[in-house]
Amino acid sequence: MRVPLSWLREYVEVDSDASPQDVLDAFVRVGFEDEDIHGGDITGPVVVGEVLERIPEPQKNGKTINWCQVRVAPDGETAADGGDAIHGIVCGAHNFEVGDKVVVTLPGAVLPGNFAISPRKTYGHVSEGMMASSRELGISDDHDGIIVLGNLGIDAEVGTPALPLLGLDDIAVEVNVTPDRGYAMSMRGLAREYGHATGAAFADPAMRPELDEIIRAATASTPDEVRVPVTIADELAVRDEPLSEVFAGFVVTGVDGNRATPGWMKSRLRLAGIRSLGLLIDITNYVMLELGQPIHGYDLDALRGGITVRRATAGETLKTLDDQTRKLSDEDILITDDRGPIGIAGVMGGAETELSADTTNVFIESANFAPISIARTARRHKLPSEASRRFARSVDPAVATKAAARVAELMVELAGGTIAPAGVVVGEPAARAAIALDPALPARLMGIDYAREELVEALTATGCTVGEQDGAFAVVPPSWRHDLTDDVDLVEEIGRLAGFDRIPSIVPQASSGRGFTRAQELRRKLSDVLAATGNTEVITYPFVTEAANKCFGAVAGEAVESIKLANALDATQGWLRRSLLPGLTEAAHRNVSRGMTDVAVFEIGRVFRPETGRRYGVDELPPVAARPSDTVLAELNASLPPQPYWVAAVMVGNRTDKQPGMAAAAYGWQDALELVDRIALATAANLKVRQGEHPAFHPGRCGEVFVVDAAGNEHAIGFAGELHPDVAADRDLPRVVAAVELDADALIAHANRHVIAGVIAGVPAATQDLSLVVAQDVPAAEVLDAVRAGAGELLEHIHLVDDYRGAGLDDDQKSLTFALRFRATDRTLTAAEATEAKEAGAAVAKDRFGAQIRA
């Protein structure tokens, strides 16, 4: 919401020396976010000038320019730029005559867009300034010619500063209004809040006695004399809200829609972000900004009979003000006359009854519509508007008649109209129920000992009526505060107005022995180790397609069952994920498509793995107005599928870039296996990898990962390797995509709980290599385990360094080379002792797999 400061000063005292930033800071103190400052971007001399002479000069390019003599200061006085009173100016516009008064930007002025004005030679003349158009001054996008002040009803002395005449000396501050504070979408609401922040006196523009007099005059007729009868259908909206709580319809006759909108009004509308659309519409927009009540005006002579507010029926259509014919929904609230729909209530009016320059009689609609219905209608028709944004946040029902009176007042004052005693008001604001507030509650929640008088003062300042009942406060919220519904809302208001800065910052002390659980600690370690290896943590959506779940969420031969959402945000992604890889591959694709070809991302999050044949969910959800019982909560929790934590990573492109003396190194299956090793170290888990199969992984580059528990039992927890090239292509990724996905909960459950650091030996180690020839289908990891088992306690470390297949071996054979390190804690081993241990390991490998030592 943008707040022109001159407008704000009409309702609340603002210090004359307060800067725009000071005003923003005041709003921040009462809970608003500051956004921006608008205006104030025109500096230097901009004055009223009078055209003394205009000489048209045709040019070779076919264009005709005007060489003008313009008086910019009274005769005998120096101009504002220090020059003569008469300036020669070249002008390409033709919508002015000699004697017209215009806006002249003199040398030294700076216009929006940092456009500096200086004397310059053009078309054979030195132009000492510029006669400005609306677009050049930032007033509007119109560039049909320069501004002629007489056309705006402005008459001022030559040399007078022009910015105040056009309202261009004003500045607006912009604050962010949260959805629960719809009352602040108005000058009335924000002026009240500024008063709360500074203690300045606030004058409510809706409480002016003149408006009450206008209401009495506008509704003085008998029911038979009402010009446009109004009927509200008795249908109920969502949550039993009436279609319209209050509907005020006033009649103003004899208006002149051709009159120009005053400069001060245009300026305020512009600063507030609304363009001028003609005097009659500008008045309705001005009152909407002033009081927060959206207004719609109808050409009275275009109406047919009375008005009925009702729901749309199937098949109805309406041509709206944007010249679009819209198919209506039975949830839409309509304004209709005897011919049918003439407007979508709270969103947009119909084209047949719109106000125009030819309008002479106006019917003013000021109503309060059901917020939920208006919000849904605006989204359904993709018609966000200033009106619908306010109605969706709830509008003060008590201000509807006041707003209609204010519009009528301005139409009389500015458009020459007359208020006809033929108006009508239907309905009245519903009374607000009292909220019981324990006087001790604010202190318990805020940590501040508020005095009883301070509580009453804060609530009264908010607009509440405060009484007492059974030792508690009985607080009746004002009509404009729909967000105040229970005692904790009132406590928040007390804290806000008394000052959030008073709330103490106390870090709670953890109970003895408390902290991260083991699972939390290990998940944190997983995150740290993955980030330390160059991966970036991301959070992806838990909603995926059914095809993605079938591809990534199952191993070969496993039936896939997924949880389908009853009310998905996107019908194509209406399933809860069984795997983290769909989201990670989508994140990788998004980065690759934007030129980030080297991507490594990971996620630790929940997946949804329903048990086969079991039904999840409940037939009926409990009401939201009260906390469900423990029994109901237990039933709800039991209706949820298992949601274990998983960890996954996806790597695309190069691990290291090409550098002088070194080629680029691309990600591959080796990097996926290295991540598995790092995860094993981080969690102190005993992990094994064997050749595996998974529909989303490359058939020859997929390893199944197992965790070995303390009893030696193996548990499958995931896969590592490269994605299938077809899967990568289907997701618009390069052919090689390294990926890892593990069940983090299972990994943590079976990881070692106690890790004992080994003793650092003071004696040297003996190293040897061992090459064994085995059948190609024998997993290298199992051969390694056999060697380790046979080598005994002297073997300190073993790892695979080569897997050879080729010349010198049969087609079904491979040679596995292991690097072994032997060490004794009490002596230096001899070569013979190391060789003996190595051969013992080879013997076990021969016994299990027929392994032969390769010479």
From TrEMBL:
Entry keyword set: Aminoacyl-tRNA synthetase, ATP-binding, Cytoplasm, Ligase, Magnesium, Metal-binding, Nucleotide-binding, Protein biosynthesis, RNA-binding, tRNA-binding
Domain TRNA-binding: 40-163
Ranges of residues in domain B5: 430-505
Catalytic activity field: tRNA(Phe) + L-phenylalanine + ATP = L-phenylalanyl-tRNA(Phe) + AMP + diphosphate + H(+)
Entry binding sites for Mg(2+): 483, 489, 492-493
Subcellular location: Cytoplasm
Superkingdom, taxonomy of origin: Bacteria
Assembly description: Tetramer of two alpha and two beta subunits.
Protein name: Phenylalanine--tRNA ligase beta subunit
Source organism of the structure: Gulosibacter bifidus
Gene name of the encoded protein: pheT
